[in-house]
Amino acid sequence: MPESLSQKSCAAFSEALASRSPVPGGGGAAALIASLAAALGSMATRLTAGKKKFAAFEDDHLRIITACDHLREAFLSLIEEDAAAFEPLSRAYSMDKSSPDYTETLRAATLQAASAPLRMMENCCKLIGLLEELPEKCSRLLLSDVGCAALSAKAALECASMNVFVNTRLLPGDPDAQAMAQKAESMLQDSAPRAQAVADLVMAHLRSAK
């Protein structure tokens, strides 16, 4: 059984990404970036948990760690799901356009290809919501990690949105594709500024004289 993309070493994944193989591609890279953002959220919270100064947030710390760990694993699974969606789409593009099944096969494969990055976006939004809590609830020494997590989550969100739009635009007028694009747009407009606000807050703190 071939090694899964998410189980590759950093060097091997980067090499695969740089190769002529179409997978992993932008969607897989977005999911990997998002998994690292979730990991940073977990780390910052774990290193704060148990500190007397932050005892009031003990229950929140446990909740955030559990959620970030779950999201990290979900993002890694989405690397595989995104790659798996490419083959049906590639087959659909190679079909004879005069085939009676061509239009519906291409439509189904295109919607499937958009579904994994759309779920990435949904999970990025959940992660950003968790990261918004951390500037108050984690050690000042770990704020830079929170800021990096926020910027990484924002980048993953935006990258994933491109992988939604590149597919939905191929189905103009299709109600399902339109609904997916609208959902992606809504998440992008809502959560990208929130992630940037966390990063801006952290940067202001790090660059202050205090």
Question: Can you tell me about this structure?
Answer:
- The protein has a single domain, classed as Four Helix Bundle (Hemerythrin (Met), subunit A), CATH 1.20.120.
- The protein is 76% helix and 0% strand.
- With 210 residues, the chain is mainly alpha-helical.
Task: Quickly list its features.
210 residues; mainly alpha
CATH topology: Four Helix Bundle (Hemerythrin (Met), subunit A)
- Average pLDDT taken over every residue: 94
> Which range does the strand content fall in?
under 5%
CATH class group:
Mainly Alpha
H/E element string? HHHHHHHH
What is the name of the CATH superfamily?
A: Formiminotetrahydrofolate cyclodeaminase monomer, up-and-down helical bundle
Major sheet characteristics: none
Number of domains: 1
Q: Please state the second-level CATH architecture.
A: Up-down Bundle
- What is the alpha-carbon Rg in Å? 19 Å
Q: Structural class from helices and strands? A: mainly alpha
- Would you count the extended β strands for me? 0
Q: N-to-C terminal Cα separation, in Å?
A: 55 Å
Query: Low-confidence runs (pLDDT<50, min 5 residues)?
Result: none
H/I helix tally: 8
Shape descriptor? elongated
Helical proportion, percent range: over 70%
